[in-house]
Amino acid sequence: MYLIPHILLLVFVAFVATIQSLVQDFCVADLSLPDGPAGYPCKKSVTENDFVYHGLAAPGNTTNIINAAVTPAFSPQFPGVNGLGLSIARLDLAAGGVIPLHTHPAGSEILVVIQGTICAGFISSFENVIYFKTLNKGDVMVFPQGLLHFQLNSGNGPALGFVSFSSSNPGLQITDFALFKNDFPTELVAKTTFLDVAQIKKLKGVLGGKN
């Protein structure tokens, strides 16, 4: 008897929230406040500069262990995309560069190759089927949300791509770093991955993890 009014109230609140989100043109991130599941709170004072970002013009620093760099324009860097369900990043791959297996828990990804040759692929969650392709300038590939995927430079010179996401902050988890760049006990890594203890310790040493 008393349940129906409560349900109607919840429906009404959800309806009002939906209408409010539909009539609000944008929600530029207020980076002085903490991020939440729905993104950053809205900034009160907005200018045209909030909708422009210059950070993708320069190449990223590829002098590192993976010979690659990802320069993001997510909501923490580009407040104007907050709440819009999209973002972009620049991908620089030196010769031999690779973006190791990783996932974006909160968004699907599209890669467009601007320069060079990139081999890219992903692994499905159904029977672990691998889909990969060598991409050339102008080619585009999509990576579904949450699936393990990779990109590597399969040419002789530098490669450049831009990746867009279906989220203003898609998240990132690199598998190698999750296993070997922290204090995940070596014995547990060995038991849960079937890797050799010596190899695990070697990888932890390379990536900065603790045994």
From TrEMBL:
Subcellular location: Secreted, Extracellular space, Apoplast
Binding site for oxalate: 104, 109
GO molecular function: manganese ion binding
Signal peptide location: 1-21
Coiled-coil spans in chain: none
Keyword annotations from UniProtKB, A to Z: Apoplast, Disulfide bond, Manganese, Metal-binding, Secreted, Signal
Cupin type-1 domain residues: 54-201
Entry-linked InterPro entries: Cupin_1 (IPR006045), Germin (IPR001929), Germin_Mn-BS (IPR019780), RmlC-like_jellyroll (IPR014710), RmlC_Cupin_sf (IPR011051)
Chief location category: secreted
Disulfide cross-links: 27-42
SUPFAM superfamilies, per database record: RmlC-like cupins
Residues the record lists as binding Mn(2+): 102, 104, 109, 149
Gene Ontology cellular component list: apoplast
One Pfam short name: Cupin_1
Family, similarity comment: Belongs to the germin family.
Name of the protein: Germin-like protein
Source organism of the structure: Penstemon smallii
